[in-house]
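[job 0417] fold request received: Spermidine/putrescine import ATP-binding protein PotA
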Amino acid sequence: MPDTGVNDAFVAFERVQKSYDGETLVVKDLNLSLPKGEFLTMLGPSGSGKTTCLMMLAGFETATHGEIKLDGVSINNIPPHKRGIGMVFQNYALFPHMTVAENLSFPLEVRKIGKSEREQKVKRALDMVEMGAFGGRRPAQLSGGQQQRIALARALVFEPELVLMDEPLGALDKQLREKMQFEITSLAHQLGITTVYVTHDQTEALTMSDRVAVFNDGRIQQLAPPDELYEAPQNSFVAQFIGENNTLEGVVKEISGDRCTVQLDGGEMIDARPVNVSKVGDRTRVSIRPERVELDPQLGDESHTLKATVKEFIYMGDIFRTRLSVAGNDEFVIKTRNRPDQRRLRPGEEITIGWLPEDCRALDAD
Ligand SMILES: Nc1ncnc2c1ncn2[C@@H]1O[C@H](COP(=O)(O)OP(=O)(O)OP(=O)(O)O)[C@@H](O)[C@H]1O
Ligand SMILES: [Mg+2]
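[job 0417] inference complete; emitting structure tokens
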């Protein structure tokens, strides 16, 4: 995985590996750098190594190999409390015996900041998360979302340049989560804070981040801005993990420039963009987003069409979601917009679908 922005990196992982048991590497070869002010999300399934990476950056775990740098300086031997990093973790509870204001004051006391300055900073941090009136309450007297906001204020109160957040919104309901997502990103951008955010929720990652690092099996599978991850996944894992995706399996029959021809397992030939296939004869999984599939296509010369059988038609209000059987795949989904002239399909109906070859990506069969 190529490194980016090495020269102006604020945070850098260089060839970092981690093993807990001395045998298996749970982080395999991490090269990742963030410029100052970036909001980067580590996204990936459970056990893919996200928290481990964050813990190494925070200083609660040590890397087995490689180096972690902050502002160009190796922090491998600097203890957590001297790294000046703000942290919000899902279960990083507030101190229950302290009031909200005391909770916020604590990191400032640790840093030997005087009383009047402490009071001023606490007030500002509380106002920032719109909790100015709650300084005297104890955590137990707050809702989950309010506690989360206090945890956020506590991470920001000593004005860290770097904040780490590990699934900070996991416990909240959908509505509150969306509100907090917005609050976190706008605060981070407003204060120019560099943020490393961990989640396994892809929508959260796509909506909040400048860039997303997709993790699987201890490796970054792709590191890109949200739109690029969705539109141009580099391998099957990313294509499947980010958004809804249709796949058809086959064998590469020809490659020429930015086109290849794939013979699907049912015998049909289709054109695709070769993304993660290297030679004729490779098995491949071609991937097409549901919204890029046309019904009764009139896409011109370059299009392809395939016969499909309707399995299920779901009216969803703004869109129609139709499940089809296509070239042996019974889970092929298309989405069409609800317009007065849009056809509503019936199960059993035989139809024709098509797409532009550039919207169809030939990826690894993994
Ligand atoms: N303290 C530990 N001792 C031993 N193994 C650990 C320890 N912490 C994590 N692991 C293992 O390391 C791997 C990566 O775990 P990690 O917590 O980094 O995953 P994650 O991506 O944060 O997952 P989740 O989404 O479930 O939080 C897992 O296989 C896990 O079992
Ligand atoms: Mg984790």
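[job 0417] notes: The longest strand covers residues 304-315. Residues 244-363 form a domain with the OB fold (Dihydrolipoamide Acetyltransferase, E2P) fold (CATH 2.40.50.140).
[job 0417] exit 0
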